Batch of 3 targets.
Target 1
Amino acid sequence: MKLLVATALGVALLAGCSGGGSPSVAPGVPATNAQHVSSAFPSAVSETMNPNHFPPVHSSCGNHVRIVVLGIVDCRFTQMGNHGGAVNIDTSHLMGLATVSPTSGTTKTDFLVTGVLSGQGYFIVETQTRKLRVVVSVSL
């Protein structure tokens, strides 16, 4: 029994001393070289998910929509290489100042922005690879 406890304690001490508790240090690499390990071996997931590898989303109505109460602006959102791809609109930051209809479609869908109350907010246009923030200013 004493041997089992001593072995477990020894293994725990060795694991603590090897640098295994730090996620930035690769096993068997001294801690002094840790900064070189993370830059020399970039994560494959971070490279493929980096949005800068994809073209930006463009808005036919610009990045700042100015509209009057009860006014309507027609917008279309495109992205090079995303012909007919899905587009979703997050209107949670408009705070009731304006509506966007419909809230999902494709790059060929016409989205209508309608002014409801005076003020300023924004909505997020999201494709499969990128996002675009469109500020909406509604005036009387």
Note: Residues 3-9, 11-48 have pLDDT under 50 and may be disordered.
Target 2
Amino acid sequence: MIDIKFIRENAEKVKAALNRRGVDVDLESVLKLDEEKRSLMQEVETLRFTRNTLADAIAKLPEKERAKKISEGKSVREKLGQLDGKLHILNQALQTKLLELPNLPADDVPDGGEDAKEIIRTVGEIPTFSFQPKDHVDLGLGLDILDIDRAAKVSGTRFVYLKGDAVLLEFALVQFVMQKLVKEGLTPVVPPVLIRQSITNDLGYWQAGGNENYYLVHDADESDEKNPLYLVGTGEHAVVPMHKNEVLTDLPKRYVAFSSCFRREAGTYGKDTAGILRVHQFDKVEMISLVEPEDDTSEHARMLSLAEGLMHDLQLPYRVVKLAASDMGFPSAKTVDIETWLPGQNQYRETHSISTTTDFQARRLNIKYKKKDTTGFVHILNGTALAIGRTIIAVLENYQEVDGSVRVPDVLRPWVGKDVLQKTS
């Protein structure tokens, strides 16, 4: 949520920033509601003062002189009740308007949509092969480590069974990233995968639509129609709200969360249907940081550096891109992606996103910090450490050999227990 005081004092700047996101907002109606609310609050405060003054006066009067003042006090209370009700309605209307506004893009975020992203740097050499490289589907089926047909029989399309070495590779990746990031001071977390609908509203990811991409779940015996549950689409959905309605005194707080994630992939019919690039269920390791506002920029750089360090250890070629204003998520002020080279597709594909939501989510979740005599809203950042499925794709395709075998990256060999993945007879 954007601070209404900031909107009030910077209306034209806010309007221009929202226009950069491609959002046409009637900001005048927001400011009008704010003005009406503040005016009514002054009237309410005046009446409350009058009510309290009358109560003190009545207490000091003789019994026979109280009737007139009591009648006067009753009239004030009745009017106060009416104005309190009106103030509640105005406040709700203003909050609704504010919740509909996305976060403002940072000044260094480029204008435009998906095609306007800025390539910051390209790292690593794209591998050359003396043969036509296969995609991960052919490699996985050849190694008998992916089973898509049986997953379709049991669960439907966009599901997969990982088998054999693919399972070893997944858990090797998880152990590798956890070991490295815990040493960097991040606290490991395995969060719930079901969250209340009210929490999703607080996070703001689905404020302007998008909830059609997520699975709504009702308990058969204890269904709460007013507050159903959603399966998380990424680990941060459950970790960020951990500190809802708290005042923190020990910032920064840094977490690394392993979570299964679930997305319906609505609107992607016919897109990336083969293999495990875009599936309904996948695992991720996610970084989440809660910091003081002045540490936002350095924390974003730190998270990106950690993600790039993991890519360097895996020796995968990638590029870093900054998303344009209208291509970012609703709560994001700046998002930088890592796109990894996939030889089977002959292109870079997104594997990581590192974002700051500034104080946008903290205001909605009421997460504050206290430092000496200062209290304010924390800044919340999130970033992919490893999207496990997509990293498995990258490993299979970049490390493939002419005979269909796949070399195991050096850093993963202690956990996989072998140097090469080969089909067993």
Note: The two ends are 58 Å apart (CA to CA).
Target 3
Amino acid sequence: MSNPPTGRSPAMRVPLLDLKPQYRALEAEIQAAIRRVCDSQAFILGPAVRELEASVAQYCQCRFGIGVSSGTDALLVALMALEIGAGDVVITTPYTFFATAGTIARTGARPAFCDIDPVTFNISPAAVRAFIETECERSDGKLVHRATGGHVKALMPVHLYGQVADMDALMALAREYGLRVIEDAAQAIGAADANGKRACSFGDIGCLSFFPTKNLGAFGDAGMCVTNDAALAERLDILRVHGGKPKYYHAFIGGNFRIDELQAAVLNVKLPHLDDWSAARQRNAAFYDAAFARAGLGDRVRTPKALPGVRHIYNQYVIRVERRDELRQYLAGAGVGTEIYYPIPLHLQQCFAYLGHKAGDFPEAERAAQETLALPIYPELSEAQLQYVVDSIADFYRR
């Protein structure tokens, strides 16, 4: 097929994401849930929040859920709950949304980046081990970063794009070196490893985002921490209300990190549909995989790889391509929405210049930043739309 010349209307429009079909299907139920909150006038930590916390915790194979104001605040309050702060070091990935490392820095701790696995885009356990063995040492029962003298206190893996990181290997490293583990599962609610163990259930605390673009999206910002540790759950619960328990009595400093009752009410309506939506994303991913294989594009387009047996929920369908920026511009002209997650890895961001990194330090993260492109994958896409995306990409490379 050929796309229309510049200045002509495209044959089809395929947005990166369209939330309106999902809302239309649930509109009456969502509006009724919102009305119940309005009628009750109970807007802060009410029954909808308690229902959501219990349901999401169970869904994530955890005992406790603590609803918070965003996925970013989930990471921040998790770090605070584990008493990570000035002088501490947290190992994480440079190829992720800014909040992962940004929240570490906000506590006064130092992000220590380790490169990614090029197949899954998740942090590489081999890179973590290499960092520990070459740049750290044990001292007085602690793991210490030689260059800064900081206590390496935690590991924050990210389950990027909807696929669980290699948590067996990462948890083994955490146990070996006494590290706490915070899972950034903002893009991975319901994702699981080959044994069926779900994101958020491996480490000390799992952090979720309910940003509208996520598989389970609110009508604004919202998030949650989940854990199997009762003491941590209690601390998280207190931290989200300024560290006060009972009210106006503060044993430690927290923040205003509460999830909104209205957002919880919306999410309670949506949660029972989550598995169906994730299954639709998986079907769309399988269609793409087969259609790209038929297109015979060779190494020009490399489709994402789900590891054998895992439950990949495809928050994003991210391909590696040649001439990425040219392709993206061409697709825009063809009416196809795309996004680059993420164009600049965190170690090269200006705000992290103080860490002293340079181009070439984390080559796999840098290569991913230059080659990757996210395609439309949301559940309501038709096969005709999916095929149009593939045909448009094939047409670009045949020109």
Note: Residues 24-272 form a domain with the Aspartate Aminotransferase; domain 2 fold (CATH 3.40.640.10).
